[in-house]
């Protein structure tokens, strides 16, 4: 039986191996000088970040594998922050982190949520300075918990922002897939959040952008509810 | 001699270089048939094995190795993009699993040192 081939998935699969090879080559590169070491570390970082996005693209094809369950948002965010710290060799002091949520649990998949927060933070951290710190804020909005990442980089292009607001990032267009924009991360976040019955949005600021994912609060059986 | 069996010449070459920088002697093969020919010439001290190979896969090779008395005890480190860490592969004398997405030259060398020189 004929089955339609998803071009994005094919591209992702094809890209995985050269990225993996590039990473191994960079790891084995031994220039000797401090400058060479910095270049090597940057090459490894670029390959690793691209590999993660390719992995995320491949996950989209098999989302049903990722079960939804009550997840502690803070634990996921802390895990991502630790990874980002390690990747950039930066300390948490360059990032303002605020957990303002009383509801700790959301209905989600930890791996997918981690990917979304990671993609948001990865973009944002590039623009962080001592004066302009990336902000990660977790708060409640109605029956949802919002994870918000505020950066101080270039404002999100208006066409991409419109796609986010209209919820059309799920259909990758020439605009959404434009290199250099935040669109690939947003496309992945959009797919993952839809699967988790959540939603993403973006707020444009004159000095940056806030990216938000809202997820439903996990309602668990309560002995008090039965009384 | 350490045998590296990987059908990706770039990744296999990186593994060989990491080992040779530390004084180990490596030999590479990109398929099970050639690898078995190498093993018949000289039993390796250990093997780095990619599981998903062109042609017969890594498990075919492991079964073959486990079926001979003189090769069944050769330590094997599996390298794969698939996560095999939850599987019990001790019957094949698999002493470690490396995730190809995250493995580093230092991890490769550590396995070689641990298996060959007993260094931790």
User: How many strands, what sense, and barrel or not for the largest sheet of chain A?
Assistant: 5 strands, mixed
Write down the domain tally of chain A: 2
Distance between the termini of chain A: 55 Å
What is the CATH homology-level superfamily of chain B? Response regulator
Shape of chain A: globular
* Total discrete domains of chain B: 1
Describe the structure.
The complex is a heterodimer of chains A (227) and B (120). Chain A has two domains: 7-61; 68-216, Heat Shock Protein 90 (2-Layer Sandwich), CATH 3.30.565. In chain A, 46% of the residues lie in helices and 20% in strands. Chain A has six helices and seven strands, in the order ααβαββαββααββ. The N and C termini of chain A lie far apart (55 Å). With 120 residues, chain B is an alpha/beta fold. At the A-B interface, α1 of A face α1 of B.
Q: Would you summarize the structure shown here?
A:
The complex is a heterodimer of chains A (227) and B (120). Chain A has 227 residues and is α+β, with helices and mostly antiparallel strands.
Task: Present the secondary structure layout.
The complex is a heterodimer of chains A (227) and B (120).
Chain A: H1 7-28, H2 34-61, E1 69-72, H3 73-88, E2 95-99, E3 105-108, H4 110-125, E4 134-141, E5 144-151, H5 158-166, H6 183-195, E6 199-205, E7 208-216
Parallel strand pairs in A: 2-4
Antiparallel strand pairs in A: 1-3, 4-5, 5-7, 6-7
Helix pairs in contact in A: 1-2, 2-6, 3-4, 4-6
Chain B: E1 2-5, H1 9-21, E2 26-29, H2 32-41, E3 46-50, H3 58-66, E4 76-80, E5 94-99, H4 105-117
Parallel strand pairs in B: 1-2, 1-3, 3-4, 4-5
Please give a handful of descriptors for the protein shown.
heterodimer; A: 227 residues; alpha+beta; Heat Shock Protein 90; 2 domains; two-stranded antiparallel ribbon; 7 strands; B: 120 residues; alpha/beta; Rossmann fold; five-stranded parallel sheet; 4 helices; globular
